[in-house]
Structures are given as structure tokens and as C-alpha cells.
Amino acid sequence: MSCTCQICGKQYKIDLIIPDGLWEIIRPDGKAKGAGLICSSCIMRRLETLDYYSAYQLITSPKTNEEKEIFNQYLAKKKENYIKRMKEKNLTSRFTQTK
Length: 99
What we know:
By secondary structure, this protein is mainly alpha-helical.
């Protein structure tokens, strides 16, 4: 199954999940809030026009148990590094707060 980009008309099969606030800035003109379909090429072209966004991270959805384990290890390491940076900066985060 594929979708049609509402900017360039190209058929595409890979979905990129964009944070809601960012999506509202780059969504197709004339589409309702939260609506629209854009191919990855058009998403990147629109993101490049924004001078205050410059780093993105692509994460795939794991399918096999082995991929899930590798993905979970990756996320655990990212969380560990994040907590370390926050402690170095003397900042609290939702990961280090206790209830």
C-alpha cells in the first residue's frame, strides 16, 4: 500500500512520524490541523526552510525479537547518556525524578 504526497504528487511507502508542533508548521497548505500526507523528500525540503531546526533522529520500528532487544539496548544507552548530561548540568529531568 502506498500514499500520495499532497505536495509533489509522488507515491511513497515510508512514513515519517513528525512531532505535532513541527507538523503544524510543515503540513500541506490548506489542510486541517493534524491532517495531510507528505513524502519524506517534501518533508525534508520543508524542514530545510526552517532555520531553527537542524538535527533529527530517524528510528525504525523493530520487527523481530532480536531487533526489539537491540532497539531497547539503544534506547537504554540514550537514556543513560541523557541522564548523565543532565546531572553534569545540574538539571533535573523526568527520568531522574522520584515520586
